[in-house]
Amino acid sequence: MSVESVFPRLEPLLPRVSKPVQYVGGELNSTVKDWDATAVRWALMYPDAYEVGLPNQGVMILYEVLNELSDVLAERTYAVWPDLEALMREHGVPQFTVDAHRPLGAFDLVGVSFSTELGYTNLLTALDLAGIPLHARDRTGEHPVVVAGGHAAFNPEPIADFVDAAVLGDGEEAVLEITGIVRAWKQEGCPGGRDELLTRLAETGGVYVPKFYDVTFDDSGALNPITPNRERVPATVAKRTTMDLDAWPYPKQPLVPLAESVHERMSVEIFRGCTRGCRFCQAGMITRPVRERSIQGIGDMVHKGLEKSGFEEVGLLSLSSADHSEIAEITKGLADRYEGTNTGLSLPSTRVDAFNIDLANELSRNGRRSGLTFAPEGGSERIRRVINKTVSEADLIRTVSAAYAGGWRQVKLYFMCGLPTETDDDVLQIAAMAQEVIRAGRKASGRKDIRCTISIGGFVPKPHTPFQWAAQCDPDTVDSRLRKLREAVNSDRSLGRNIGMRYHDGKPSLVEGLLSRGDRRVGRVIERVWREGGRFDGWSEHFSYERWTSAAAAELEPLGVGIGWFTTRERAGDEVLPWDHLDSGLDKGWLWDDWQDALSEQELDDCRWTPCFDCGVCPAMGTDIEIGPTGRKLLPVTPV
Question: Per its UniProt record, what PANTHER family does this chain match (predicted)?
Answer without folding.
Answer: RADICAL SAM DOMAIN PROTEIN, SLL1084 PROTEIN
